[in-house]
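Catalogue entry: protein

Sequence with per-residue tokens
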Amino acid sequence: MSWSRLEGKSAARKMLRRETKAGSKSTDGTRKRPSASAVWRESRDLIWEHRGRLGLGLSLMLVNRLSGLVLPATSKYLVDEVIGKHRAELLGISVDGAWCHVAYATHRRFHFPLLSDFEPKGAVAKTYGVYAQEQGTSGRALFVLDEEGTIRWSYVSPIGVNPGADGILMALEQMDAVHAS
């Protein structure tokens, strides 16, 4: 929603109301301190008028907090149980520096290594054909390599789309089937 729409007639009325309630000048030219009841009344009016947006914001904050509890456990399960049972290793790599990776892995509580493709910038991403020269970043891509380093499966995700892990798991299962035969 644009700011100009928020500053419509109701915002102008509120500003006028605020100035007349809380900003009246006393006879000596200083501003009068607003009464607590006037402040509470104005607060209730603002909250009531914007209750839909406030409710959405609080809901998003709750989801964000809950995902902070779920994601670390999901990451640990993925690495330990799912990837581990396929005799595979999970590595993350990006063109960010090592200190960025330390902070990111700590914040997200990742249980797998994050590798830096920082210097020379994007050399590994260029080798795999996923370096975006214009942006100076690597694309969001997934690769499954076998023991010899041969790419057995790959997927380059559109920007802003989480590629998920389904393709990786299918590729690992196919590789296990080949090893079993």
Summary: The longest strand covers residues 151-157. The chain has two domains: 3-49, 72-180. The first helix runs from residue 3 to 6.
